[in-house]
Amino acid sequence: MSEPSLSRRAFLASTGLAALAAPSLARAGAVWAAAAAKVGAPAPAFSAVATSGKTVSLADYAGKIVVLEWTNHECPYVRKHYETSNMQALQKEATGQGVVWLSVISSAPGEQGYVSPAQANELTQSRGAAPTAVLLDPKGTVGRMYGATNTPHMYVIDEAGILRYAGAIDDRPTTRTSDVQGAHNYVRAALHAVAAGQPVPAPVTHAYGCTVKYAA
After folding, report:
1. Rounded to 5 degrees, what are φ and ψ at 156?
2. Which residue, 138, 159, 160, 199, has fewest beta-carbon neighbours within 10 Å?
């Protein structure tokens, strides 16, 4: 695939969905084209089935701050944050303050990171994770709606349903566990700003990690 044009690059930069590399562009081009989520605008409404079997809708959490976390347990970038308990600590910190945390798995059947509801629940338990719910999105409907390109890819929605942050979890785009300590956590900063009714300091950053393993 050829490099994107300048106008294409400008579009990607403005939406915060810029590619990390040409191969990622080839796989995720359709995702960007269909993405409706835009920071500063209402977060796209969605419904998805949780591992409990219950259908969960964004509308269920009206009036609450919501975090969306795209995840793939086999991705080394995701493992970095779970093996150090960095993600779990952030989940517990957020949910302890009344924030709703939804972990979303958009891996398609047969692709890296795909799990059954039982497997997802076992992962949550074994890792000591604390999301409000884990949502299964094997057709990639929700992922494409938000333009999620990487795992982890993080989003913060405020109480009014406005998307306030989209991008990376922090400023250390590596798989090194040692880089967790001392990293600037964009999600934590966004949550603090939203809770205080202040502008998010960096509302859009480039998500890093493995590409989301969408269905072809």
Report:
1. -125, 125
2. 199
Give the pair of three-digit tokens for residue 202.
């960096």
Give pLDDT tens digits for 110-140. Answer: 999 999 999 999 999 999 999 999 999 999 9
Nearest to 2, CA basis, from 23, 18, 16: 23
Q: Is the dihedral of CA 58, 132, 17, 137 positive or negative?
A: negative
Element (H, E) at 50: strand 47-50
**7's torsion region: left (phi>0), alpha (psi -120 to 50) or beta?**
alpha
The CATH topology of domain 6-211 is: Glutaredoxin (3.40.30)
Q: What are phi and psi of 177, to 5 degrees?
A: -65, -30
| Beta carbons within 10 angstroms of residue 9's beta carbon | 13
Amino acid at 188: R
Residue extents of the structural domains in the chain: 6-211
The 10 Å Cβ neighbour count of residue 22 is 11
Q: What is the mean pLDDT of residues 51-76?
A: 98
Q: Which residue has the higher pLDDT, 198 or 36?
A: 198
Mean pLDDT of the chain: 88
* Over residues 159-177, mean pLDDT: 98
Which among 165, 141, 183, 128 has a CA at the least distance from the CA of 55? 141
Total length of the chain: 216
Q: To which H or E segment does residue 41 belong?
A: none
Q: What is the pLDDT of residue 35?
A: 53
What is the token pair recorded at 37? Answer: 């989520």
Peptide bond into 4 cis (omega under 30): no
